[in-house]
Amino acid sequence: MAAARTVRGTRDLLPEDSARLRAVEGTAWQTAQRFGYGEVATPIFEFTEVFARTLGDTSDVVTKEMYTFNDRGGDSLTLRPENTAGIVRAFISNSLAAQLPQRIFYRGPMFRYERPQKGRLRQFHQIGVELLGAADPLADVEVISLAHEFLCALGLGGAITLELNTLGSSESRAAYRTRLVDYLQGHRERLSVDSLERLERNPLRILDSKDAGDRAVIAGAPALADSLDGPSGEFFAAVRAGLNDLEIPHHINPRLVRGLDYYCHTTFEFTTEHLGAQGTVLAGGRYDGLVAQMGGPPTPGTGWAAGVERLMMLSGVQAVMPRPVAMIALGREQSGAALRLARRLRQSGQTVQFAFGTSLGKQMKWANRIGARLAVIVGSDEVARQVATVRDMDAGAQEEVSLDLLEERLAQSA
RNA sequence: GCGGGAGUAGCUCAGUUGGCAGAGCACCGGGUUGUGGUCCCGGGUGUCGCGGGUUCGAAUCCCGUCUCUCGCCCCA
To answer: Is residue A341 located within the same domain as residue A397?
Structure first.
């Protein structure tokens, strides 16, 4: 048997971890529901081409980060590295374009073959929303404000910054790309090795380089804003106006360029200073060409995804575990009565943990250790008189309660 | 994929020049077979990440490897 360890970059979620993860997810889901979003759960694996085609053949995600394998039927399958492609595939598969717009929420594990770091795992969790079928800039405003409310609900309002940019229409973006490449070709000798690579695959990313030499070159590069056509400029202005109407603070970052090919117009990120190199906590943008590219009816889209583990590290949300009632039977003869009592109390909404053991002292010690609110003790004396001893574990006081009144009595002390 | 740092008990960590593996907390047993916490007594619970090598002797030195971690790439 292999050593009892997890695969690199994966983790077990123990009860407290799971509770914290559910708390973050639940907050997102509640927020999305209030905006009228419905949850869509797609499989965690898809045909490889679902991702390969949509993410772009040159993206890092496709070229080196996907978990791809052949199943027994010979199909190439891939564990989802992100979920926009899967949601769009589901949108097409289920003909959701019949009723637009579609407001979709999702959550679940994603998989990327990357070198792990803090806030970067090979299996991690994302939550996200996609708003399909709305070309209006107010759709971008909606998803950004949804994100903002969600992050504020987690108590992160002060810890995060919203950065915003536009790539312009697909035409604007393509025109700018040409101008940028022309400029950079003239300064090849001053670019870093990484950026020479980017020049071939994804030249816009050079704008975001951390290399000092690159930045000097970039300083003289043509600005994306200057390449925007009229409608693209108006679109961006409308997004910003909407954010201002909602008083959502943001700042324009002309170097904010998404890595994936399908983005156009609005791009945004909520970032933090508190997570080292993994400062992006939630990111998204508009992807008007994606649905058509995947073979569906031309449909505009906008949305975002957030990393749950990163949010958990930031927010310090504590797991809320209900304090149980400890059900203690004294002696085997009383176990039947105790089992039935425990069932009754659970049916009345109580959390009840049943004690295994014989010595009252040990069972009380156990009740104390699990943080029980109350201990219900059922011994032969109690059974004979149709009562139970109810001990308040915090106060250290106890009383006998008639079995008929037990639910009522416990409900009072909740 | 590239470059640094780390790995000793469940947790946080100490361990001298290579010489019997330790502390605090936690945990377990007993004092207490119908009463927990506090208290007292007792217990170390360990593949020193793993595998080799050097040595009379390795947690300690050397090599490899795994995992975590910081940065790069990229990304949530």
So the answer is: yes
